[in-house]
Amino acid sequence: MNHALPVQAHGCRNAPVLKERGQREVFCGLTGIIWLHRKMQDAFFLVVGSRTCAHLLQSAAGVMIFAEPRFGTAILEETDLAGMADAHDELDREVARLLARRPDIRQLFLVGSCPSEVIKLDLSRAAERLTQTYAPNVRVLNFSGSGIETTFTQGEDACLASMVPVLPETQDEQLLVVGALPDIVEDQLTKLLSDLGISVVRSLPSRRSSEDPGVGPETTVLVAQPFLGDTVAALAGRGAKVIQAPFPFGEEGTTLWLRAAAGAFGVSETTFNAVTEAPRARARKAVKAAAQTLSGKSVFFFPDSQLEIPLARFLSRECGMQALEVGQPYIHKGLVGPDMELLPPETQLSEGQDVDLQLDRCRASRPDLTVCGLGLANPLEAEGLRTKWAIELVFSPVHGYEQAGDLAALFARPIRRREALAL
Asked: Which end of the chain is more exposed for a tag (fewer CB within 10 A), N or C?
């Protein structure tokens, strides 16, 4: 049996990286609440922040006026910021009102923001105090969603990392898939793993707190999202074994991701091929339809979501695109190293951002497609460059075999649209 990862001899894992430190164009970590509150059905995310924080979440979520979302904002007023009121007393009152109104809440996350961090509001102490008050019915945790030093997907990393210390201990052998995925994608990947013969497959985060996994020395961690460095480190600190693999984008990435799990649990090559042959064929066929548009085209990634390196691997190897520059807010080789090994050696990697300098490089290279944040997309479109909103790749189901064609189509659509307009 051979489950070894096919390493490209001249990949980018040890290639020089252009490191920049300057003005950045990213959302803050509060944005992660938008997909986390949909995933975690008995959790509530209470942002301790300003009206700007509240407006960001409302606009990003598109919540209707009659909806009952699982997030809200405890707004810091001028008296709080000036130290004229006890912010902890006011927070306790808001939490009491919230839990009285929403008895379905079992996990309450106090989410720090730029304003709460500036005034040094200790949400960790508040979470401990409130847990003592409302346990065992409600568990109160805290994490930072501040955008002062982070990119927006790190909000999920901070959230999941805050959960790891309170997960129960277990000695059971299990595979733990880490990273919030749409329910349908999670179900598809879990079924494939179960069909391979891996009997216990758990997820972090789970859909309900009663389903939270245990963790221990017999836990094997397979990471589904490339921005979870702190969470993975916390799980390893509790004795879990972390296996590395390319991320499950496209047919190749999904196959190598599943192979990593198969190798860790002793699955035979015969079983692996029998389980994956049909979905692999469907994925290749679906990607091929979009690849006809993408093949031979160039792509330029601005740093935004932390998905950039795995997506560049997918586009270059499965869709025939040339990745001119692949920027990430930060590069965690322990997570994206396997994807870096599969990138063409001529790919320029960049870490961090100096947006003006990167815009100059983008304009000079004139890529066929530019993947960037919302703040840059419209100006670049006005200059004649075709763009893809990076945030759409986070909010869309894109992992796994069944979504491979949809993922390729997301990149092909702006190119097809421009070609149609030119007719």
From this structure: C
